[in-house]
Amino acid sequence: MNIQIFGIKKCFDTKKAERYFKERKIKYQFIDLTLKGLSKGELQSVKSSIGLNDLINNEAKDFKKLNLHKITTPSIREELLLSNPSLYKTPIVRNGKQATLGYQPEIWKAWE
């Protein structure tokens, strides 16, 4: 199992996800989205499990600032996500080719 948690340190659900894996003594890698976003390959992998529109946080300040609600072209939305990591809903928890969004312990249990 190779767990990666993409999130923001201040996010409550990200903290809960980290606690979930710590309590079960499962090693994970935390990637702080305020410092480093997803790579293009990581985004493609996550997108195949979750879907592009589900990854976007409609409540983010940058969502309104960038007029993302008016942009419907998937490739442009992807580029905006890659260049603005603050647009992601968090946490994104990845295990190889599988990924979840938010706090999903029932799915993570199946990964163990």
From TrEMBL:
PROSITE patterns, sorted: ARSC (PS51353)
Record-linked InterPro entries: Arsenate_reductase-like, Thioredoxin-like_sf
Family membership noted in the UniProt record:
Belongs to the ArsC family.
The name under which this protein is listed is: ArsC family protein
